[in-house]
Structure formats: structure tokens, C-alpha cells
Amino acid sequence: MTTTVLTWREVARVCLLLSAALLLISLIALTLGGAAIPARSVFAAFWEGLTQSPSSLSVEHRLILFDVRLPRLFLAMIVGAALSLAGAGYQALLRNPLADPYVLGVSSGAALGTILALALAARLTLAMPLAAFVGASLTTAAVYFLGQRGGQLAPYTLLLAGVITASFLSAIIAFLLNFLSASDLRGATFWLMGDLSGTAPFSLAWLALPALMSFGVMYYYAGDLNLLLAGETEAESLGVDVGRTKLAIYLAASLATGLAVSVSGAIGYIGLLVPHLVRLLFGSDYRLLLPASALGGAVVLVTADAVARSVAAPTEVPVGAVTAVVGAPVFIYLLRFRLNDRSSASATGENS
Amino acid sequence: MNPDRRASVLLEVRQAAYGFSHFQLQSLNLSLHRGETLAIIGPNASGKSTLLKLLAGLLQPQAGAVLLDGRPVASFNFRERARRIAVVQQESFLHFPVRVMPFVLQGRYAHMGPMQFETRPHQEVARAALLQTRTGHLAERLLQEISGGEKQRVVLARALAQQPELLLLDEPTLHLDIGSQVELLRLVQSLARRNHYAVALVSHELNLAAEFADTVLLLQGGRALRYGAPAEVFERELLEEVFQTELDVFPHPETGRPRVVLRAPEGDPKGGGPAALDPGLR
Predict the structure, then answer these.
(1) What Å distances lie between residue B119 and A1, A171, B34, B78, B137, CA to CA?
(2) Minimal Cα–Cα distance from B54 to chain A, Å?
(3) Interface pTM (ipTM) of the complex?
(4) Which among A236, A239, A346 is the nearest to B93, CB-wise?
């Protein structure tokens, strides 16, 4: 009878399970790509690296493995985790199961920030992620206010506001692209679809830090988010400091989105797909959902990137195209079966 | 708990006022004892829900004070307040599926720190709350798939899991059939007596308010028209004026509590007596 009560043991069990899945999928991902490096060789390379024994791998393969595939793998993990966290955060903040940084236009805001920074201050290393964070924050705020009707968040209005904001921001980005040099332009176009092939402008450790910060802040408020889903007045009467919680989640989710977009562009639907998959498999308690979404996001994006690299080898497809092909149908499914009309009616009326 | 403390004043409202642009709740006084049930009645837009929010500390009075144990409700921090005051809202909409047990455990939030899990003692409180509301058998069900009456009892169970001193209910019987209405209010009344909660409930059901409340507050246009025992508040002329319709008020033959019915149209040969049409039960 106590199966539905969440314990830390359950959280640890799920995290362990997902970590194992991440490890497995990472090893497979490392073998895939233009040059086939068999799993045996990947193991050997790591073992030799650990024991500092002479390598059996060719110099070329070692370069591919350690300087190309491994950084890209870590990048995919961090970006996937960040986007999933942002999605889970927005879903609670906006009480909308379909909230996702890409669908809400927040990714476009971050992209606009990044492009502006690229055009105006390309030489400053921190300019792009900072501008992306600012872009994400401003867009979130705009969509939040546009998505209201009669002082209440209305689920459908919110989604429409996000879609329109995204198309508006994309138009501005299209104008700005004219001012980029030809070499920047090719990269930017690919990047706009969501792409992990670019190298991060700074080390992965610096990328992981804000992602961890964002996770830490959100996890601190995990219990509050569970209650916030039921509505703000209700959460407040149950003891939640609603204002502080919303501000913290708003900043943490914008930070995660800005971070992800500034290095990999607008990869869509990860923040929608992963938290829903986790809810389906393990339950919807945020104390479990947040860590599981972060790990699950890493698994999904590493997988999607492996597909993107190998499906049309030797060339590659933008990873955002892979996630959208899977994500858009799922979005439609959730739109039809999860976002009920009664909820939107209650948001506009009945409260006196 | 000694009898003195049981009957002591828990909540006191002194000259409290709150205004919106189009509506003003005017200097209101009331006191609520432990174990007492107060019904707040009045026509639409009379300020019932606003008053309840003031009592809950969800709104702060613009003048006057709302005191819980002599301390302004607004001075409690969020968790402190939720450990003493529980609110049952009209209806809560859920966009994300949730099972009954985790839902009731939400009532333990205020008793826990951040990033903690509901340990066995918390689970026991929640289970006891489910048993008290006779919803123990629903623990593993989804909240979305149980009936309206069951759901309101589960929402009440969550409020009980907060282990509050003051229980506030905003039209708890809205959308319930008459049987479920009576069942819920009986439950609230017996819990108030047994656990010595002070209860304040907003209701449109005049007859249920008269039957289950110890005191009644009648509001109109943000003013308190009358405040006292049901028999003192349920006066025919007063209610007729407030609700703008012709009514009959008479004491129930057994309980002696007032009953309100629509008056039969004059000269209607089939006017089958006061019980024929009952506004409170429709």
C-alpha cells in the first residue's frame, strides 16, 4: 500500500539505473561516426589511458576518440540535461504540461541574444552565454505575460504566445544574419537548427558549472514545485513561498536554456519529451523528476546526436532535426490528450 | 487539552477592511473559538470569499487586524501559517495526474524542510487523515478518476494532514449532490468537535449552514448584516431583503434549527406547504 510514497532510495535507484543507461549509450555513441572504432578499441583506449600504458590505437583514432567524440559526448550530455531541466522547470512554473523552452520561444530568445553577441562582441568569451541567458529571461517574461487571460495563465493562450514569439524572434534573427560575415553565416544557419558539432568557446567544466547551479536551485525547490502544479493560491495555503519559488525557477530555467542554446543552438523538444517520459516511467514527483530528467536528457540527446552523426554518414544531420522529428508528434499527442479544455475554462472563470 | 483552552478564542477579526476598485469589505468584527463552526453566508459578490482569504492570511487587511492566537496572521511565515491554517478551496484543477496518497501527503509540506522525503510518521498522519475522511481505500487511485464527493473528502484529508487549528472551507459542497453535501458537512462538524478545530465555511446552502453551524455571519455588499446563532440570523424579513426573493423561515420540528424555503405563489391551490420548494437544497 505504500508504493506511491516516494523515498530517497527510489530516487537513488532510478538515478543509478539512468546513469547505467547513460554509460552504455555513451560507449555505443563513441563507436559511431565517420570512422568506425569498435567498442573493444574504445574500452582498450580508456583502460590504457587509466593505466598510462602504451596505446594500441592508431594516432588518428585516438585523436578522433579523445579530441572529437569525447568532448562532443560531454557537450551532448550537458546540453541534454540542461534542456530537460529547463522543460521540467517551465512546466511547473507555467503549470502547463506542454511547456518546453523551444515551444515557448525561449530558445529563440536565447538564440537572438547569442547572434547579437556574435555580431557585436564576438571576441568576448562570456558575451554569448550571457546574452543567451538575458535573451531567454526576457522571452520567458514576455511569454508569461502574453499567455495570461484575465490575470490567469491560460494553457492554450500561453502556447500560442510562445509560438508567435518564436516566429517573431526568428524573423529578427533572419534580418541580423545579413550582417554576419560569410563564414559566420554558414555556422549560424546550421546552429539555428540545433547542432552539437561546434566546439564550445570555453572548457566543458565551465559549461557544467552553470548547469549544476541550475539543477541545484531547482532541486532545492523540488517540493515546492510539486505543490505549485496545483495552482498558486493552493500552494500558498499549503505553505509555499510562491513568489520566491517562481523567481528562482524562472532564473534557473532561463539559465539552463541560455547555456544550452549558446553552445548548441535551438535544439527542440528535449524539454518536452524527457520529463514526460520520466513521468510515465517513474512518476511525477519533482524530487525524482528533476534528477531523472537531467540524466534522461543526457541519454536522449547523446542518442539523438549519435543518430544525427550516423544516419547520413559521412555528412551529418543537425541534431535538432532528429529531436523535432520525434518530438513534434509527441507534442501533438500530448496536446490532444493531456491539455484538457476544462483546465482552460477554470483558468478564466469560476474564481470569484 | 483542558476544557478552558478548548473553548478559547482562536481567531479574532478586529475592524478588518479590504477593498478592490469595485468592492469594499467594511470593518468587520468576529471571533472564532476552538471547536466552533462558523458559516459565512450572503448573496454573490457579498465578500464571502474575500473574507475567507483574509482569515487564511492569503490577503492582508488594509485596515484593522486578523489575529490568530493574538498574533497577526500576516506575521506568520508561509510554513508556520500552513501548520495552523488549512484551506479547502472550491475546486482544484489538475493538469498533471496525481494519486490520492501523494496528494494528501502535500499537506505535510509545511511540516518538512526543503529536499526532504515523507518519512513514516508523515505517512501515518496522512493515512489517519484518509481514514478520518473514509477515503483510505482510495489511496492508490488517481485523483482524476474518483467521484466529486470522494475528491472533496480527499481534499479535506489533505487539509487534515496539515494538522491545523483553523480549517477554512470555501464552498466545499459546490457541485456535490445533496447526499454528498450532507456527508461532507457532517464529517467537518464531527472533526471540528473531536479535534477541536475552529471551522469557518463559506456556503450558498442556507439550510446546510443553519443545520451545521454554531454561528452564522450574514454578509451583503461587503458589510456584516448580522452575526450570531443560526436562529438569530435566519429572520424572514432580513433574508428576503438580502436575497431579493420571498421566503419562509420556520424551525425544524426536531432540531429546532431554522429552515428556509421559497414561499409558495399566492393563490396557488397546489402550494403544498413550506417543504415543496427548497432553495437551499436545489
Answers:
(1) 15, 52, 30, 22, 21
(2) 12
(3) 0.83
(4) A346
Q: What is the pLDDT of residues B29-45, one digit of tens each?
A: 999 999 999 999 999 88
Instruction: Find chain B residues with C-beta within 8 A of A343's C-beta.
Output: 93, 95
The amino acid that residue B34 corresponds to is R
CB pairs under 8 A between A and B: 103
Query: Is residue A217 predicted with pLDDT exceeding 60?
Result: yes
Query: Hey, of A2, A5, A334, A342, which one would you mutate to test binding to chain B, going by the most B CBs within 10 A of its CB?
Result: A5
pLDDT > 70 fraction of chain A, expressed in percent and rounded? 91
Cβ <8 Å between B110 and A231: no
Grid coordinates representing A188 are 549560424
Residue-wise burial string across A271-297, b where 16 or more C-beta atoms lie within 10 A, e elsewhere: bbbbbbbbbeebbbbbbbbbbbbbbbb
Q: If you write DSSP's letter for every residue of A166-215 in order, what string do you get?
A: HHHHHHHHHHHHTTS-HHHHHHHHHHHT--S-SPPSS-HHHHHHHHHHHH
Q: How distant, in Å, are the alpha carbons of A290, A330, A337, B106 from that of A283? A: 11, 18, 18, 15
List, in sequence order, every residue forming a beta bridge with B220; answer none if it has no partner.
Answer: B223
Please list every residue in chain B whose beta carbon sits closer than 8 Å to the beta carbon of residue A2: 123
Q: Cβ contact (<8 Å) for B92 and A8?
A: no
* Cα A317–chain centre separation: 19
Return residues 73-102 of B near A (CB < 8 Å): 77-79, 81-83, 85-87, 89-99, 101-102
Would you say B110 and B67 are in contact if contact means Cβ atoms under 8 Å apart?
Answer: no
Q: Give buried/exposed letters for A226-241 (b at 16+ CB in 10 A, else e).
A: bbbbbbbbbbbbbbbb
Single-letter amino acid code for the residue at A10: E
- The larger pLDDT score, comparing residue A138 to residue B270, is at A138
Predicted confidence at residue A339, as pLDDT, reads 64
Report how far residue B135's alpha carbon sits from residue B156's, in angstroms, rounded to the nearest whole number.
10
Sign of CA dihedral B233, B237, B240, B242: negative
B170-190 core/surface letters (b: 16 or more CB in 10 A; e: else) = bbbbbebeeebbbbbbebbbe
Q: Residue B274: is its pLDDT beyond 60?
A: no
The pLDDT of residue B19 is 86
Chain B residues within an 8 Å CB radius of A221: 114
The pLDDT value recorded for residue A310 is 86
> Which of A1, A3, A97 lies closest to B95 in CB terms?
A97
Confidence of residue B234 (pLDDT cuts 50, 70, 90): very high
| pTM, to two decimals | 0.85
Q: Which residues of A touch B (CB under 8 A)?
A: 1-8, 95-97, 155, 219-224, 226-227, 229-231, 233-234, 236-241, 279, 284-285, 287, 338-340, 342-343, 346-347, 350-352
Flag if B82 and A238 touch (Cβ within 8 Å): yes
CA B240 to chain CA mean position, Å: 24
